[in-house]
Write a structure and sequence with these properties.
InterPro entries: GerMN, Gmad2_Ig-like_dom
Helix content: 10-25%
Structural class: alpha+beta
Shape: globular
Order of helices and strands: HEEHHEEHEEEEEEEEE
Strand content: 25-35%
Organism: Micromonospora inaquosa
Strand order of the largest sheet: 7-13-12-9-10
Distance between the termini: 132 Å
Largest sheet: 5 strands, mixed
Protein name: Spore gernimation protein
Length: 300
């Protein structure tokens, strides 16, 4: 019997078996996007999310015992608080007149105001006749329920003391936390108790010595005939360079606020005067004039 038959069959059978083995479930298909490393700018987190397929977890660096390096971003500079502007009420010709001071911000605004009030007017203000009657070292002892309490030395005649008290009350009640002032354990008082100490025309802006430019806004309060407030601007030689008028929010017999805008042309910077006045209903003369010395800046 020949041995070649079985051997001859073995090769085809083996080839067929191999071919049949390749006919199983297909392994082709979409494997998805290839994994990518996280961007170098991504900040590390304490708990990293699931890692992409085939990615390896980075080995944390060994501790060095040194503090972490500061951030390359420079810290933003600390912003200084805005300055505070306070209103001061001085005495002029036996009546109350206002001016302003701008100082570094402070939480003790009442103390700042009383200190500035006791210091007195500057040179430009003093030139208009402003003065102060408040002695130094007067401070508010407490502020509660809108009432500021303080003691003021009881010196001078009654008229002087009342003017001094009016300075304190009108200066302190500019702040929203103070509606009334208690002086020397007396009943609390407010601005209305001293309203008779205001001149017919009060100028709140500009203030003495201020550098002003055109157009100039003149503001204040007034109780004048037909509520009409007039303004004129004089140059260093006393020449009239601008005029204007406006109407207060209240007429004769009551006090109202006013706002008048005036403009001028000047050759160069020079001293000047802003006059705010009432025109007499009797003869048209300027009456109740409030003169404010200023510095006029050049205008085109």
């Amino acid at each position: 019997m020949s041995r070649r038959g079985p051997v001859g069959l073995g090769v085809p059978v083996l080839v067929a078996a191999l071919l049949l083995g390749g006919c199983g479930t297909s392994r082709s298909g979409d494997l998805g996007p290839a994994p990518t490393a996280p961007p170098t700018s991504a900040a590390p987190t304490d708990r990293p999310g699931p890692l992409p397929t085939l990615a390896t977890e980075p080995t944390p660096p060994p501790p060095t015992g040194r503090s972490p390096r500061p951030s390359a971003t420079a810290p933003s500079p600390t912003r200084r608080p805005d300055p505070v502007t306070i209103e001061l009420w001085y005495v002029r010709a036996g009546l109350l007149v206002p001016t302003r001071r701008t100082r570094p911000a402070t939480v003790a605004t009442s103390r700042l105001a009383l200190t500035e009030l006791a210091t007195g007017p500057n040179r430009a203000e003093a030139a208009t006749g402003m003065t102060t009657l408040l002695p130094a070292s007067v401070e508010v002892t407490r502020i509660a329920d809108g009432v500021a309490t303080l003691r003021v030395p009881s010196v001078g005649d009654p008229v002087t003391r009342r003017l001094r008290d009016a300075q304190v009350v009108w200066t302190l009640t500019q702040f929203p936390t103070v509606r009334q002032v208690r002086l020397d354990d007396a009943a609390p008082v407010d601005r209305s108790d001293y309203a008779d100490l205001l001149p017919p025309i009060v100028v709140t802006g500009p203030i003495p010595g201020e550098r002003v430019s055109a157009p100039l806004v003149v503001t204040g309060t007034a109780t004048v005939f037909e509520a009409t407030v007039s303004v004129r601007v004089l140059d260093a030689a006393g020449r009239e360079v601008a005029t204007g008028f406006g109407t207060a929010s209240c007429g004769s017999g009551c006090r109202g606020g006013y706002r008048v805008v005036v403009g001028w042309r000047t050759v160069g910077e020079q001293r000047g005067t802003v006059e705010v006045y009432e025109v007499s209903a009797l003869d048209g003369a300027r009456i109740n004039t409030m003169a404010v010395p200023v510095v006029l800046t050049a205008s085109d």
